[in-house]
Amino acid sequence: MLGEIATIAADRGVDLIVVAGDLFDVAAPSPEAEQVVFRALLDLAEAAPVLVVAGNHDNPRRLEAVAPLLELGRVTVVGAARRPDDGGMVRLGGLGVQIALLPWQSQRGIVTAADLFDRDAADQAISYEMRMRKLIGALTEGMSPDTVNVVVSHAMVHGAKDSGSERHAHIFGYAIPALAFPSSLSYVALGHLHRPQQVPAPAPVWYSGSPLQLDFGEVDDIKSVNFVTAEPGLPARVEPVPLTAGRRLVRLSGTVDDVLAEAGRVEDAWVKVELDEPARSGLADEIRSALPDVVDVTLVKPAAAERPVQGPQRLGRSPRELFSEYLIQRGVVDAGLEAMFGDLLEEAHET
Ligand SMILES: [Mn+2]
Predict the structure, then answer these.
(1) Contact 250, 164 (CB under 8 A)
(2) Quick one: which of 46, 147, 326, 342 has the most CB atoms within 10 Å?
(3) Cβ contact 175:126 at 8 Å
(4) How open is the CA angle 346-350-351, to the nearest 5 degrees?
(5) Alpha carbon of 330 to those of 99, 191, 301: distances in Å?
């Protein structure tokens, strides 16, 4: 998928590439992950200069540490907010482009511990918004009307739709209105939400979305990169270019027979299986042996399990009777499991 993006950039002869953050999934990525990401950034830079802002999953100090090295390969990385004259605004004179770079701003950096105790959540959200507006204002106020003016940021904007799979603590608590971006901007490139989308706003404000389906909430998303054409004084034209190289996610549901009948259409996708079938031991193994790329097998909860259990009289009844009644209540039909229980019970009695 990363190679596909580099090819798109090269084929279309782009002048500039922006990456709006969350390069990594965790603050301390593995060397293998770093190798993949840094290689991809350098491959992109073969086509055009690359500008990157850190997302909430990234470790800003870690990115700042490698920034001077990446800069040698014409990849500019901004991990933490900077003043316009200190790297917060990049001017590409030859292209007539000015780009404000605003990485993810943690609420912890804006709302202090004292605020958490002294003020209610609504006040805290407002101070976050005010602070973000101030940062955006400071980064964009020096932009000239004669250039293409772009903001690259990693942030949650009100009115945008999530995929249900992003980390919710970072999604709904703190957000900014799309109006925080001046209407004179040519383009606003946002990272954070996985679903590619334009956010209603006076300026063209877009999330390019994640380049891969990252969770089964995204099985219907068509992932893409935005190919943006801009000239001074006009809103940019945006063309989402679909990405097809990444492995897809597929959800299969029904009985074991239903699922196995569909096995042929999953190709190399990662699969989640939801079985509507009485539980028995070994069910997940059966599915996995037919579909090696199954990452999750779950059972649709049988209706019986929803019914309140009539407190059965336990006195005077054998453990076997109680266990088979328990299985019935849980919607499990498995003679093998009952036999196993019997064997274990005998072993326990012998010891
Ligand atoms: Mn994010």
Answers:
(1) no
(2) 147
(3) no
(4) 120
(5) 59, 44, 9
DSSP H stretches of helix in 178-318: 256-261, 283-290, 303-306
> Which structural domains are found in the chain, ordered by start?
2-242 (3.60.21.10), 248-300 (3.30.160), 311-351 (no CATH)
Tokens 């990169």 belong to: 225
The pLDDT averaged over each successive group of 10 residues in the chain (351 residues) is: 97 98 94 97 98 96 96 96 94 93 87 70 80 94 94 93 63 80 96 95 95 90 96 95 93 91 88 88 87 88 59 80 87 86 92 81
Rounded to the nearest angstrom, the distance between the alpha carbon of 294 and the centre of ligand 1 is: 26
Q: Compute the distance from residue 57 Cα to the ligand 1 centre, in Å.
A: 6
Specify the length of the chain in residues: 351
CA distance 83 to 138: 8
Torsion, Cα 107 205 16 21, to 10 degrees, reads 30
Q: What is the largest distance, in Å, between two alpha-carbon atoms of the chain?
A: 90
Strands (E), the chain: 17-19, 50-53, 75-78, 89-92, 97-102, 148-154, 187-191, 197-199, 205-207, 224-229, 237-242, 249-254, 270-275, 294-299
Which residues in 177-189 are b (16+ Cβ under 10 Å) and which e? ebebbbeebbbbb
CA 206 to ligand 1 centroid distance, Å: 14
pLDDT at 317: 87
Whole-angstrom Cα distance, residue 251 to residue 272? 5
Q: How far is the CA of 290 from the centre of ligand 1 (A)?
A: 35
Distance in Å, CA 300 to ligand 1 centroid? 31
Q: For 179, which DSSP code? A: G
Ligand 1 centroid to Cα of residue 269, in Å, is: 24
Residue 172's contacts (CB-CB under 8 Å, 6 or more residues apart) are 156
- pLDDT of 1 reads 95
Residue 92 Cα to ligand 1 middle (Å):
27
Short-list 301, 325, 303, 305, CA closest to 313: 325
